[in-house]
Amino acid sequence: MAMTLHVDIVSAEAEIYSGQAELLVAPAVMGEVGIAARHAPFLTRLKSGEVRIKVSANEVQPFYISGGILEVQPYTVTVLADTAVRAKDIDEAKALESKQRAEEMLADKTGKVDYAKAQAMLAESVTQLQVLEKYRKGKS
Description:
The protein is of the alpha+beta class. The protein has helices at 92-107, 115-139; strands at residues 5-10, 15-21, 23-28, 31-36, 42-46, 49-56, 59-65, 68-73, 76-81, 84-86.
């Protein structure tokens, strides 16, 4: 039996996941990190992307996060996310609509658009769609 660690994923709205895992993989700002039991303690910022929790040899649970902080202790990992959603719970229609709205905002050349906000909106919706697509491919 593999050694495990306790993982908590929380967002501003709710606790998304709390349980034991063999491994956690997260999108740190400086690159993807993998955390197993007895990992050295550290703290890092997370960027938007997919967090994967390997619960057992046969079960991996994917999540979308929009950024946040990762805290690692020897037997506990905490993901404090701005936004966190289980991959299976991502609303595809809403993400597609957000992507289309962001693309329209970026195409507007009148100067009345906050381009940074539109780019962030586009990046977030594209990342959600990528996480959802990867989740669906893994299920088939």
